[in-house]
Sequence to fold (373 residues):
Amino acid sequence: MSNQPLGIPETLHPYQLVIAGYSGAGKTTLIERCIEKFSAQFKVGYFKHDAHRFQMDYAGKDTFRAQKAGAKTILINSSEGINIYFSEPTIQQFTLGTALNNSDFILVEGYKNSPWEKFLILDENGLAYHEYLEGKWQNVVALVYTEKFPGTLPQNIPCFERNQIEEIAQWMLGYLKTKIPPVYGLILMGGKSTRMGTDKFQLAYQNAPQYQECLKLLQPHCTDIYFSVRENQNLPHEINANQFIVDKFLDVGPLGGILTALKDFPRRAFLILAIDLPLLSNQTLQYLVENRNPYRHATVYRNPKNDYLEPLCTLYEPKFYQGALIALANQVKCPRKILGSLSIQQLRPPNPDHLDNANTLEDFKTLKQKLMS
Fold:
């Protein structure tokens, strides 16, 4: 059960910052200038919360007539973009996050009564500041003032003059970085290995079973590491049972393991590693992690050998979960296809051969010979 006030969703986006203040304080102007500053590097989303009733178009226009006729959801698609109207607040709360999900981060104008962290714009008559001192504004993380501000600013919170756009933008980016989740590791070994004829995690390409090699590769890059497994799978006794994540999404292949991990740990990113990539090196993983873009749905290699995205050596961010669920509802089960439909950071692997996988015994023998030569 959420403790959020009625009408306020728990969150709109993993990376969000509310610009709050009274009407006329300059919220929209500040947001516009910040978006101009960020847009060359980021996909910035903007959401304005209007506490007042508004009408989509005017009397006599098509959308107005559709709304009056009883339409609960209205979309306008034009060359300039898509406008969406929802008449039911509960649906709106669910769909807002989906609509904004493709943005790297969002700036929110309004929601002044929400518990979300806020950038408070002080009005020149001092009303918002007096209320801030009285504790009427929740979770204020920084203040913005004008040169006409009638008072002495506090020393225990960042304060910026409204025209200090460079300083404000840098502070915002620093703030957003504090929201970047840590990286957990996930070794996918729940496949049935039908073509291989035996569980792939038991194969030894070098001196140890492949699951142990994967564990060693992930350890320098992850704070915790888990094994994605299927129900009732025969597993190595030396692995702690607390490290198993049993698939909850069934009959969808490796996507099931990825979604289960992101569902069980919703505030963690996951570095996914398939059990059948025996040539993979620490260099390949390190390059992936060092070039992570946490604001996208995932950081992923595009293999130049076939021009395919490699979904099973990928760093998935928490918001991939929502995008993947929508794809799954539309019968799309392939992680590669889902990644191709989302906002991702693409990389070229340092050595494409390291992404070669083994699906058959013949593949196993070929790759084992490569490692021994």
Notes: Residues 126 and 150 are 6 Å apart (CA to CA). The chain has two domains: 16-177, 183-372. DSSP finds eleven helices and 15 strands in the chain. The longest strand covers residues 308-316.
